[in-house]
Design brief:
five-stranded mixed β-sheet, alpha+beta, binds dinuclear copper ion, Immunoglobulin-like, 12 strands
Length: 309
């Protein structure tokens, strides 16, 4: 772990340099205008001071050009910052489609991580360089926040929904991983590290150690075990809709509205089945709230995502 003190923190992701640049420009602009204003206060105070007891100041009419200048120039600067910041924000928070997906579950007070081949780790996240990594995150209890300063990205993981974040690591090494949301007694110990490796080293690391079922396979087992398959099987006359190819499709609900079946929808339909009932079916499904852990839920969702028509 890198413990030396740095004024400019290490940039270890593809967008880190751009985030820093906007920060330095904002700081520079603030310093520039603060100094300019202080300087002008002193200049004006000296230059336009009252020189005798009975001095009467002359009336100064407005100067249109000057007023336009000090309205339009700051407006322009603010708009540039706004567009620049908004573009970078959307880039930072919209994962590329083809990103490599890793599951993260926050829990008082640790991070559980599962890789696509099933490999698990705690408070450590191994990733390869040069590939966009998408983290799909959930929490078992309270709000946690996944924060990797060297990547300049941070995301709150809020109970009851999935959070996603992404980054592309560019430099092998070990970097701090923090929980950046106060989450109870041992919040300050909810720390870990991100280990960035060359892709070949990562593959080697991934295949080492004990093996677990990949999330989709583990999800299929859950699907059988807790009995989802009884109603959502492929037999004709099943009480629930078939779930083949459901992920990403448009689902028509009772009442005629439609929703896109994304991760959030699948999750909600398992925990609160009657929130959105599919057209043509009765609201018969029991809730699974409190009966499935977030880690298992992520696996079931992974299984449903993999179920192609
Ligand atoms: Cu988890 Cu703070």
């Amino acid at each position: 772990m890198n413990k030396e003190f740095r004024i400019f923190p290490e940039q270890a992701s593809r967008l880190a340099g751009q985030v820093d640049l906007i920060y330095y420009v904002l700081t520079g602009l603030s310093i520039f205008f603060a100094l300019l204003i202080f300087f002008l206060i002193y200049v004006f105070a000296v230059r336009y001071r009252r020189r005798s007891e009975d001095e009467v100041p002359s009336q100064i009419p407005g100067l249109l050009q000057l007023e336009l200048a000090w309205s339009i120039i700051p407006l322009g600067i603010c708009l540039v910052i706004f567009v620049w910041g908004a573009r970078l924000y959307f880039q930072t928070y919209s994962p590329p489609r083809e990103a490599y997906e890793i599951h993260v579950v926050g829990k008082q007070w640790m991070w559980h991580i599962q890789h696509p081949n099933g490999k698990r780790e705690i408070n450590e996240l191994h990733v390869p360089t040069g590939e966009p990594i998408k983290l799909t995150m959930a929490t078992e209890d309270v709000i946690h926040s996944f924060y990797v300063p060297a990547f300049r990205t941070k995301k709150d993981v809020v109970p009851g929904r999935y959070a996603t974040m992404w980054f592309e690591a560019i430099k092998p090494g070990e970097y701090h991983l923090f929980c950046a949301e106060y989450c109870g007694t041992k919040h300050s110990q909810m720390i870990g590290k991100v280990v960035v490796m060359d892709p070949a080293d990562y593959q080697q690391w991934l295949s080492g150690g004990e093996s677990n079922d990949p999330p989709a396979v583990a999800g299929e087992k859950q699907f059988q075990q807790i009995g989802c398959v009884t109603c959502h099987g492929e037999k004709p006359g099943s009480r629930g809709p078939s779930l083949k190819g459901v992920f990403g499709s448009e689902v028509t609900l009772q009442g005629g509205q439609t929703v896109i079946a994304n991760e959030e929808y699948l999750r909600e339909s398992i925990l609160k089945p009657n929130a959105k009932t599919v057209a043509g079916y009765q609201a018969l499904m029991p809730t699974y709230q409190g009966q499935i852990s977030e880690a298992n839920l992520l696996q079931i969702v992974a299984y449903l995502k993999a179920l192609k028509k």
